[in-house]
Amino acid sequence: MALLLFLLLVAVVLGIIGVAAEGLGHLLIIGIVILVAALGLIAVRWSQRAGHRPIR
């Protein structure tokens, strides 16, 4: 969980720097890629957790 929150924080910071600083658009792209990777990890963990419910 801490890794996902860290990835989201890094993505937001890189995105803000990429938008605010002139000529650093590549940081925005890197931030978007990290954000997509973090959301993918969240989706994988969420789907794994949903599949392990005991049958009653």
Fold and architecture overview:
The chain crosses the membrane at residues 25-46. This is DUF2207 domain-containing protein. There is one protein chain. This protein has 56 residues and is mostly helical. It has one domain (2-47). 80% of the residues lie in helices and 0% in strands. The chain has helices at 2-20, 25-50.
Helix content range: over 70%
- Tell me the number of helical segments per DSSP (H or I, 4 or more residues long): 2
Largest sheet: none
Number of strands: 0
Computed Rg:
15 Å
Protein name: DUF2207 domain-containing protein
Organism: Streptomyces shaanxiensis
Keywords: Membrane, Transmembrane, Transmembrane helix
List keywords for this structure.
0% strand; rod-shaped; mainly alpha
Summed up:
The protein has 56 residues and is an all-alpha fold. Helix content is 80%, strand content 0%.
Outline the secondary-structure elements:
Layout: H1 2-20, H2 25-50
Helix pairs in contact: 1-2
